[in-house]
């Protein structure tokens, strides 16, 4: 098993750069940045917020990548024991933990400075709190302390649309909190589906994920209950009068798909439905935020399209 004293595997500059790229969890960061973009555009429907978009995207992405890198440094011994994560750069001996810490700190500091000077102080502080919440509070403590780790720690990962909103407005508004609440409610069924599929990994690594401590059946029920709650929460933008019927229909259809997957997990008890639910949850979140954006800008698009008889 790789240790902190293992000699690094030989690698070209390109291979080493690819390892640092992987250290930032680019797929996760991409989804976070997308939801932040939605928050920015929803906060400014009448004009494109160029400054907030450029500097906000850069700062949020850098600090999210920094949090991901710190997470992998802290979890390097756990990652080495898990099938899903043992191919990551640190367990494979491709990157030294001390170099990764320095890399993460530089990224985090640069991202914070970009947000502080190029966007606004509120967004910089909220992003820093999100980084600390995920990289330190969740990874160092919650992940190992309670099977409710992902529920409590999910708050850190739910901030991107709120950050996008504050990057434009400089303040926290009720609608931005609803966007936060959507991702916060989405996180448990999303991650617990993966936890069921990778239950043996988490048990081997002594991580008290819900399927390990309470069993698969209990976790499947919790996924269903949280999915029902998620459907209700996703209707809040419509009920508040901010988004219209197009969004409501999209949210209900996507929610029905999520409920179908949750029910199939309970009905079949087959492991493959857990990973199918996990994959669907990612598509679900992307499509839901796309509907938020499409619905909000549809009237503006229709106003600009000439009608010819």
Describe this structure in words.
This protein has 309 residues and is an all-alpha fold. The chain has 2 domains: 11-172, UbiA prenyltransferase (Tetracycline Repressor, domain 2, Orthogonal Bundle), CATH 1.10.357; 174-297. The chain has 15 helices and no strands. Helix 2 (26-43) runs parallel beside helix 8 and helix 8 runs antiparallel to helix 9 (174-197). It is globular. The N and C termini lie far apart (73 Å). The mean pLDDT is 91.
Keywords:
2 domains, mainly alpha, Tetracycline Repressor, domain 2, globular, 309 residues
Give the gist of this structure:
The chain is an all-alpha fold and 309 residues long. The protein has helices at 13-23, 26-43, 50-74, 76-81, 97-118, 121-145, 149-157, 160-169, 174-197, 199-204, 210-214, 216-234, 236-239, 245-268, 271-304.
Report the total helices: 15
- Provide the number of structural domains: 2
Strand content: under 5%
Largest sheet: none
Produce the secondary structure layout.
Elements: H1 13-23, H2 26-43, H3 50-74, H4 76-81, H5 97-118, H6 121-145, H7 149-157, H8 160-169, H9 174-197, H10 199-204, H11 210-214, H12 216-234, H13 236-239, H14 245-268, H15 271-304
Helix pairs in contact: 2-3, 2-8, 2-15, 3-5, 3-6, 3-8, 5-6, 6-7, 6-8, 7-9, 8-9, 9-12, 9-15, 12-14, 14-15
